[in-house]
Amino acid sequence: MRKNIFLLIVTVLSIGSISAQNATKTLVIKGKVVDVYNAPVANAIIMLDDQKTSITTDTKGRYKIRATYGNSKIGVFSFGNGTLETSINGRNVVNFNFSSIAATQSNPNLKGDNQAVGTGYGVVKKKNLTTDVSRIDGTNEKYASYASLQEMIQREVSGVTVNGSDIVIQGSENLLGNVHPLIVVDGVYMDQLPDIPPVTVSSIEVLKGTSASIYGSRGYGGAIVIKTKIQ
Asked: Sorting pLDDT into bands at 50, 70 and 90, what band is 103?
């Protein structure tokens, strides 16, 4: 009897030890991240189980990360594109394509409050959006007549004051005066709007108020997230 109990204990401990070893055993995962135009996305942050890591994609959109068999999900976050996530399932190659988000945004079957809206971090439905986000679809031919991004934003987005390169969203200010919005172009932070033709723009998202809080203190004055066709 004692011998059987001893064998049972040894078996249980062995199984626990094997499980622990598998959980810490490493798995190298690599892949590529592309946008809706199948262009590589640089500086995208790789995530494991919803936690950001120090690994980012290179200029060709490629990444390599060492995970463990205890990790169940891998994801990618890119300013201006959003967030994608999938199960690892022991795979060594995991690619990401942001066209899946774009498909949700442009789905003609989604009407009114069910339409998807990009927030610079991900995509939510309008009815679940408690903050103000304005989106310009740069693929619409009617915007081709604008001479600059400043003119396009001033005429198409309410609550935005444009005076040359000086832009203020909803009169945002502090004790020192106006607070200018954060400008994000293809994931790159800028101090002002780039001098590029409006026809080269895929989309512009203007985040007002707390909708820009995803950028922390940098988004105090709101944010303008621009995605181009030529990145």
From this structure: very low
